[in-house]
Amino acid sequence: MSRLEKAMENAAKIRQGNMQPIAPSVPVYAPVPARTEFHANHIPPSADTVVEKITSQCPLLVNLNDPYSPVGEEFRKLKSALVKLTNDETFRNTIMVTSSVPNEGKSITSLNLAISLAQEYDHTVLLIDADLRRPSMHRYLEMELKAGLADCLLGEADLGDVICPTGIGKLSVISAGKEIANPVELFTSQKMQMLLAEVKHRYPDRYIIFDTPPVLPFAETRTLGHLVDGVLFVVKERLASQANVKDALEALKGSRMLGLVYNDTTEGLRDERYSSYRGYSTYTR
Fold it and tell me: Which of 150, 119, 156 lies closest to 220, judged by CA?
């Protein structure tokens, strides 16, 4: 029975005197429904209004659990560089984080960057797990995997219903959602373009960060690269070859490259505990 049919049945029982009206409960936070008209003055919920705050103990989330570490400082530098690169005449707020091959640390980079941005007063952040083949964001945040991006693109969920506030600054997340056999078709659909336009314009100060699959094995990342405002490219030392990086950048030709995060470098590192996340450089083309 659908929600509408159930509501009609309850209304009929109330009219017949067989059922007492139920007083609605007041939620601490009600998700904003998806809409076609954008309202720039809509204020997102503060962290204090979230029902359940995420308290992940994952040590890789340094900007959450060890923010004053050397690595936390590196992500703050990355955040500052990103803000400068995306704020000029036009606010370029849709950012894709990717790599050439798997296991280069793009998801951890996405998460720590999003947390660092969300802890600032000036920015709200929406982090979207767009790696529908190998989603990981819910595991790092120790969240239950619920309806998410895939469900929205399939028309099985509304955008407002899958946005999950975290209580970490002004950070909200959208998980990957249900398993999809061929994500490429969803990424090239009109639904994807409409969803991107909705999240881009819903709040005027919000960054939207997409954690995507690596470029070389999968085609959907190349499609999304042409839809977002900018790309951050993660390269892990001793994993991705020069040929891998060259081929991936060639595949993203036409996308706006914001910078390169050089990951897992130990050169000049004083604290070996944090060797996995040192190194950042920017370039444009």
Answer: 150
Residue with tokens 């819903």: 202
pLDDT in tens, 76-117: 999 999 999 998 888 899 999 999 999 999 999 999 999 999
Residue labelled with tokens 């941005």: 117
- Give all strands of the β-sheet with 124-129 in edge-to-edge order: 164-165, 171-174, 124-129, 206-211, 94-99, 230-236, 257-263, 281-282
Residue whose entry in the numeric block shows the structure tokens 């040590």: 59
**Residues contacting 18, CB < 8 A, separation 6+:** none
What is the Cα–Cα distance from 68 to 57, expressed in whole angstroms? 16
Pairwise CA distance, residues 220 & 225, whole Å: 9
Half-sphere exposure of 94 (CA within 13 A, CB side): 19
Domains in the chain and their CATH numbers?
Answer: 54-282 (3.40.50.300)
User: Model pTM greater than 0.85?
Assistant: no
C-alpha 124/C-alpha 128 separation (Å) is 13
Q: Taking a C-beta distance cutoff of 8 angstroms, is the pair 64, 168 a contact? A: yes
